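Hi everyone,

Forwarding the result from last night's run.
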Amino acid sequence: MKLHRRASTLFELILVLAIILVVAALSVPSLGAMYGHYKLNASVDSVQSAWATARAHAIKENRPYRFSVQADGRGFRVAPDEEDYWSGQAPANDPNGEGIILEQSLPAGVRFAVNGESNGMAGNDHEDFSLEEKSVQGGNWTTTVVFNPDGTAHEDVRIVFSVRGSKPTALQLRGLTGDVSVETEPH
């Protein structure tokens, strides 16, 4: 005996669409948290890499290198610790050779606080939640750490990164040894 089934009813189609919408709505917060985690890790890695670059060039060129952040906390910069490098463009004829200048910005939505104080460096809670990096704008730089030619730093530094949907992560620099450690903060 052959049974004939008619097409799906409108009710069945609406029920399937409702189930799909519920599943999608439940998965969005999980995806947002995962996205924030990647942005946070990318930010920590970029600052850790900038510190390694500054330290390596300080040793190689036998001159101090400065790591500074912008007042709004969006960008950071590495360059020789000489005023000519921080007053605009690099000097044309540096007697010590051309020093490296590295400028980067953090992904939108990422905040960081240096040594436990935000000093106006917190981001906006309503910022774009995309992975696109914004370009570094202008110059008001605040010195965070200076790397010496012997591989040490002037002081210990702790930067805590946070982003919506992820636990804060701290990047700790030991000034005397130049060692860097990363740890997840309690929420």
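Confidence is low (pLDDT under 50) at residues 119-135.

Cheers,
N.
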